[in-house]
Amino acid sequence: MDQLKIVVTDYIEQDLEWEAEQLAKYENVTFEYHQLKFQSDEELLETIRDADMILVNMVKMSEAVINGLEKCKLILRHGVGYDNVDVDAATAKGIRVAYEPDYCSDEVAEHAISLLFAGWRKLDAGRKVLESSSKNGIWNFNDVYPIYSIKGKTIGIIGCGRIGSLTLRKLSGFDANLMVCDPYLSDERKTELGIETVDLDTLLKEADMFTIHASLSQENYHLIGEPQLRAMKSHAYLVNTARGGLVDAEALATALKEGWIAGAALDVYEKEPPDPDLELFNLDNALLAPHLAWYSEEANTSMREKVLEDFIRFVEGRDPRFLINKELA
Predict the structure, then answer these.
(1) Residue 21: helix, strand or coil by DSSP?
(2) Is 105-288 assigned to CATH 1.10.760.10?
(3) Of 209, 169, 205, 163, nearest in space to 182 by CA
(4) What are the residue boundaries of the structural domains of the chain, listed by start?
(5) Residue 291 is a catalytic residue
(6) Helix (H, G, I), strand (E, B) or coil at 53
(7) Exposed e or buried b per residue across 8-27, where buried means at least 16 C-beta atoms within 10 angstroms of its C-beta
(8) Cα–Cα distance measured from residue 241 to residue 246, given in angstroms and rounded to the nearest whole number
(9) Which of these is catalytic: 78, 111, 243, 304?
(10) Cis ω on the peptide bond leading into residue 273 (within 30° of 0)?
């Protein structure tokens, strides 16, 4: 039986002792886990060059890194997106790429809705009003006016895949109008969801609130930039729990300062964690969360179980659960 080396480049769990214990049952498997997130390509390759399978969380698997791999057969992305893996380079080298898209869909949808409603109802500003009024002994609500009802408003969903469609379903009971933009949605899927879709320009002009659930690609980098923000209503509220690169943070900061839109909530950033001089930190109408939309105790357990399943599938010569470059199946 061939010896196999599985290497983890970086992880968010406290440790991977459970995974190591499970894989120890296979005598032909060597399992290593590291924290290499801030290593150079050369340093990264020193550890993973001879790996047969690689599990990656946030480490960037660039073309240079992939080309330096000597015998890798599978790169598994620990998470929903895979924009930090150069899939084209992996495909060209005959390396399969897979990911884990089904472990936190409910959590992300719930988090997006929580941010959407918290921002729309100005809960963060409300806390400041409470503290100020408590200090002064008299209510003063001026800093939260105006607040609008959610009933009858139009909520725009950008991207209606696994998480976007769950968000759509969970929002269906709030007496709001739901509008979807997803050019990749099939007619069959639209029928299943009972929806029609609109183009992005229409959505931007007509919706009062927006929640983004698209995957990130070269084609949609900064999908929401200055032109799109200017097209929104002045009372519009934007939420992004998908990928930081989908929103131009500099344009968003300008939009919030100059009143093009009323507010925004982000759980994701182009650089993570963001630099301390991120301009959005200084804006009261920017609600910022620490990329935890994915998290619940249940989701964390589910992720570990699903990753282990893909480890075992690899060891046993079976296909991963969610292969990206299907031409290598």
Answers:
(1) helix
(2) no
(3) 163
(4) 4-103+297-328, 105-288
(5) yes
(6) strand
(7) bbbbebeebeebeebbeebe
(8) 10
(9) 243
(10) yes
Token pair 């893909």 in the structure block, residue:
310
Task: Note the pLDDT tens digit of each residue in 271-288.
Answer: 999 999 999 999 999 999
* Cβ neighbours for 32, distance < 8 A, ≥ 6 positions apart: 5, 6, 7, 8, 47
C-alpha to C-alpha distance for 64 and 90, rounded to whole angstroms: 10
pTM for this entry: 0.90
Distance CA 140, CA 177 (A): 32
For 160, the token pair is 């209606």
Paired tokens of 147: 């607040």
Which residue intervals of 10-75 are DSSP H helices? 17-23, 41-48, 63-67
* DSSP assigned state of 72: -
Look up residue 100 and give its two tokens: 């884990």
Identical fold, 4-103+297-328 and 105-288? yes
Among the options 272, 298, 305, 318, which is catalytic?
A: 272
User: What's residue 2's pLDDT?
Assistant: 87
- For the chain, where are the alpha helices, taking DSSP H only? 17-23, 41-48, 63-67, 87-92, 105-120, 123-136, 162-171, 187-193, 200-206, 226-231, 249-258, 297-315
> What share of the chain has pLDDT > 70, as a percent?
100
CATH code of domain 4-103+297-328? 3.40.50.720
Contacts of 121 (CB under 8 A, 6+ apart): 147
Cα angle 61-63-64, degrees, rounded to a multiple of 5: 95
For the question of residue 243 being annotated catalytic, the response is yes
pLDDT digits (tens, 9 = 90+) for 156-212: 999 999 999 999 999 999 999 999 999 999 999 999 999 999 999 999 999 999 999
Catalytic residue among 162, 291, 313, 321: 291
> How far is the C-alpha of 238 from the C-alpha of 18, rounded, in Å?
39
What are 12's two structure tokens? 């968010």
Active site residue 272: yes
- Over range 295-307, report the average pLDDT: 97
Identify the pLDDT of residue 1: 73
